[in-house]
Amino acid sequence: MPIQFPPALRPGQRVAIVSPARKISAAELAPAIATLQGWGLEVVLGETIAGDYHQFAGDDDLRRRDFQQQLDAPGIRAILCARGGYGTARIVDGLDFSRFARQPKWVAGFSDITVLNSHLLALGHASIHGVMPVLFHQTGGEAALESLRRALFGEAALPIAAPAHPLNRPGTATGELVGGNLSLLHTITGTASQASFAGRILFLEDLDEYLYHIDRMMLHLHRSGQLAGLAGLVVGHFSQMRDNAIPFGSAAEETINAYAQLYDFPVGYGFPVGHEADNRALVVGQMARLVVGAAGAQLAIA
């Protein structure tokens, strides 16, 4: 089915910040709110900002109701997820996207928000995998923030480059972008939130996982047939990986490579996507072109 893209934002429009996962305070968002206002946007804070239920930004019902309210509100033109953590998968089945489908709007976030990125793609809608408000002003994140602004306002995305990497597999691929956090892609396999990888360029990133978990999740993607029809693979940040006292024996990228070698699509490692300051925005569902060569790799809008 053709992917539906929300209208680009314009100055003067309203955007909502909500937290479908971990809790966060309004004070933590103050710098991001100022930035969004500097872009000419009016910012509305959802009920989940300052919500507090154990580690969550309110209980499941509050987080679902808050997100649903922003989905349905005609005056809200984009929903920015304040932060990740854990919890989005607990509420996604209770969301009704029927009004959203009649008036699509941008939904942006990454990490745990991969659930929404994938769910929307499965419904035929594009969304943004990009830096979240709590992380807007990390040192070294200037290009990431600018890439998010360009995506929201409909400006052409700049090509994203990665240096040469010993595990790269040369080649060229064209396809719609799909992917995000490996742990969440693994979690939603077999659910209504699973989007097809077939014929698409998959991008992966993760944080704070044991190295054997990376193998377990990649093995599952392989055994479930999700890697078989890929057009290409983009590997981003695998940050703060952990290991056991008896080492697993391979780094995250080496583990991914062990499964990628079973196929013949091009693979580019070291892209600035994931849990580092330089986390470039990718529009999930957008047609892109991956070129991997001796000098490195580049991902650009097709």
TrEMBL record:
Family classification: Belongs to the peptidase S66 family.
Domain LD-carboxypeptidase N-terminal: 15-130
UniProt entry keywords in alphabetical sequence: Carboxypeptidase, Hydrolase, Protease, Serine protease
Pfam families: Peptidase_S66, Peptidase_S66C
UniProt GO molecular function: carboxypeptidase activity; serine-type peptidase activity
Ranges of residues in domain LD-carboxypeptidase C-terminal: 174-290
PANTHER family hit by this protein: MURAMOYLTETRAPEPTIDE CARBOXYPEPTIDASE, MUREIN TETRAPEPTIDE CARBOXYPEPTIDASE
GO terms under biological process: proteolysis
Keyword Iron in record: no
InterPro entries in the record: Carboxypeptidase_A_C_sf (IPR027461), Class_I_gatase-like (IPR029062), LdcA_N (IPR027478), Peptidase_S66_N (IPR040449), Peptidase_S66C (IPR040921), S66_fam (IPR003507)
Highest taxon of source: Bacteria
Protein name: LD-carboxypeptidase
Catalytic center residues: S111, E205, H275
Listed SUPFAM superfamilies: Class I glutamine amidotransferase-like, LD-carboxypeptidase A C-terminal domain-like
